[in-house]
Each structure stands twice: as structure tokens, then as C-alpha cells.
Specification:
339 residues; mainly beta; six-stranded mixed sheet; 5% helix; binds beta-D-mannopyranose
């Protein structure tokens, strides 16, 4: 197997546990999962599907908080160790481009990505149907809404952490306004974070049973010496409903609509009580990673059963070896994705 290196910052203090002795699989769970339990705030019943990153001398995150009226909104959290989180009691108050207050009707599954010197929050909101909402901040005090990148219906948008060939690049998953029984991952480019085009197909659902219904973007792509490493979600429709697992693939570094490697096995699937049992059972839904380029360590943050947040660990070498061992890229995934 070839060597692979993470390209990015050092993060020596990121959460970590060694792989349990004798463990055969490439991804292992944090022993104290779930890290965020039920009723984390007076007005929030559940936090899940949330994104974190290093910030200042600690960590910051945007969290999907399911309020007691059933509406999801985005809450800010801070942490010294990226395990124990303190949340702002009120949801994030966005302002629009004119400085006027802006609050989406609902907002869920936020991702948080830094590009250049700006932090972008990307989520799913009502835009006359499920669509992508976006805001930017430089200080986590004011959050300015920016134009929605796509028409409805669309979910699971996630930015690449740097421009590619001069443009911002975003993955997303066109969908419908319900529980979408289809879906492939697409990519779009923008010179200015306002006008998006050059849409390309990246990868589709597959014949692998665990991702045979639909797939969708997960954590922000991680830059490596071998391409962009992505963790995404794959869904199967069973006689008892949808099951969400986590998959892994590697995209071309300069033309990321080309899939170079794609693991035919999931890397994590609901097995623990907090993944199998909850508001929506059998959901592992990745939204972020932390990684340390010195050691190759990666922590995956994922929503569990629409009820909790969990953390799982791997190293870039472990997951790369596993992807290559079970590599199966379809012709459609490998091509540029333009017809
Ligand atoms: C998807 C999204 C996720 C959720 C999942 C399982 O469509 O809405 O937020 O975790 O369904 O309910």
C-alpha cells in the first residue's frame, strides 16, 4: 500500500483515542460517545448533524439544535477540547446583506468551512422548498447572510476548504421537498461566492447495498497528497426505513468532479445504541472532521439517530488503505461529470 499524507494544519490537541487492540476496522468510535446528549439547552431537545473546527486556542462549532417546537435552528458552541461543549443559549442571529436581521424559517445540518480568512456556514433551509442557506463570519459575533447558491431543491452543501483553479468549489445534492428517494453528489464553482456554475456530476448512488438509494455530502473535503478525501453519507431503503452509513472516497485534487477511488464498503454504519435508537433510528450522518497533519489523525463528527453527536477516529493511512483494498469506482464517477 502507498503512503498518504494530510495537507493542512497541525492540531496536536485534537481529540484522540488509539485504535482498540485487535480492532480490525479502519474507523473506531470514541469510547464516551455520544458527546452531546439529550436536552442540551433549555429550549433544545436534541443536537445532532453539527460541524466543528479549530478556532483561537480551542474549538468552535455550529450545531443543529432541534427546538421544542420541532423547528431546527443553528446554535454556536465553544469548547477547549472539542469534546465538552458550551452552547450559546440563543440561536445564531443572522443579518442580511443590508445589516437587517435575518432568521431562516428553519435551518438544519450546518457545515462550517474556512476559506481564505472567512468562515462560511452552509445549511439547509426553506427557500420556497428545501434549499441551501449560507452565511459568513470572520469573528463569530456577526453572521452575514450571503446569496443562496442554488435553486431549490437541494441539500447537503459543503465547501472545499480552499479555492481550486481560482474558484470556490462546493459539493451539493439536488433533491426533492420530502424524504428524497434519490440523489447523487454534484459540484459547482464560483469566482465570487455569489454566482455558481460549471456544475459537474461527482458521484452517484451505487450497487453497494448500503448506498443504493442515495448519497450526500458530509464533512468538508480533506486535502491529502493523493487527492481530496471525502466522508459522505450513503442511504439504503430497508423494509424498516432508511439506514444512513458513512462512506469514503478520494477525488482528484485539481478536477474534483473526478472520483479516483471509492470504497465499496461503508466505513461506519449504525451499530451502537445511540446510532440505532433515537428520534430517527439507524442514522450516522457525518458533518465535519478535525485532523492533524503531523500524525495523520482524523476525528469524524457525526450525527447519531437524529438525537446525538458522536465522534469516530481513524488515520489518513488507515482509511486510505481500506479505500484502496475495497476500491470500486464506476465509469460515471471517474469521468469529468459534464454531459
Ligand atoms: C436527511 C436529513 C438529515 C437527517 C436524515 C435522517 O434527509 O434531513 O438531517 O439526519 O434525513 O433523518
Amino acid at each position: 500500500m502507498s503512503n498518504i499524507k494530510l495537507i493542512g494544519p497541525s492540531m496536536p490537541d485534537m481529540p484522540w483515542q488509539d485504535k482498540p487492540a485487535g480492532y480490525q476496522l479502519p474507523v473506531w468510535r470514541y469510547s464516551e460517545n455520544p458527546i452531546i446528549k439529550r436536552n442540551p439547552l433549555p429550549n433544545v431537545a436534541r443536537i445532532f448533524n453539527s460541524a466543528v473546527m479549530q478556532y483561537g486556542d480551542g474549538y468552535i462549532g455550529v450545531f443543529r439544535g432541534e427546538q421544542r417546537d420541532g423547528m431546527p435552528h443553528i446554535y454556536l458552541g465553544r469548547s477547549k477540547d472539542a469534546i465538552n461543549w458550551e452552547f450559546e443559549p440563543e440561536k445564531i442571529n443572522f443579518t442580511d446583506e443590508n445589516g437587517e436581521p435575518f432568521m431562516p424559517v428553519y435551518a438544519y445540518d450546518p457545515r462550517l468551512v474556512k476559506v481564505d480568512d472567512t468562515y462560511y456556514i452552509i445549511w439547509c433551509q426553506d427557500g420556497y422548498g428545501a434549499s441551501i442557506g449560507m452565511a459568513k463570519t470572520t469573528d463569530f459575533k456577526t453572521f452575514t447572510r450571503i446569496e443562496s447558491p442554488f435553486l431549490p431543491y437541494n441539500r447537503n452543501a459543503v465547501l472545499f476548504p480552499r479555492r481550486i483553479n481560482g474558484n470556490y468549489v462546493m459539493l451539493s445534492r439536488p433533491c426533492d421537498n420530502g424524504h428524497t428517494a434519490f440523489g447523487d453528489i454534484f459540484l459547482s464553482e464560483s469566482p465570487d461566492m455569489e454566482f455558481w456554475g460549471r456544475h459537474r456530476h461527482v458521484m452517484g448512488k451505487s450497487d453497494n447495498w448500503w448506498e443504493s438509494l442515495k448519497i450526500g455530502g458530509g464533512a468538508a473535503p480533506i486535502e491529502t497528497s493523493e487527492g481530496w478525501l471525502i466522508f459522505y453519507h450513503g442511504v439504503v431503503n430497508t423494509c424498516n426505513g432508511y439506514v444512513y452509513s458513512i462512506g469514503a472516497a478520494v477525488l482528484d485534487i485539481n478536477e474534483p468532479s473526478r472520483v479516483l477511488h471509492r470504497c465499496s464498503n461503508y466505513i461506519l454504519t449504525p451499530e451502537e445504541w445511540y446510532e440505532e435508537r433515537g428520534f430517527v433510528p439507524n442514522v450516522c450522518f457525518p458533518c465535519a472532521t478535525l485532523s492533524d497533519s503531523d500524525t495523520g489523525r482524523i476525528a469524524i463528527y457525526y450525527g447519531c439517530a437524529d438525537s446525538y453527536v458522536g465522534v469516530a477516529f481513524t488515520t489518513v493511512q488507515d482509511v486510505w488503505d481500506y479505500i484502496l483494498k475495497y476500491d470500486s469506482v464506476s465509469l460515471t464517477d471517474a469521468e469529468l461529470g459534464k454531459r
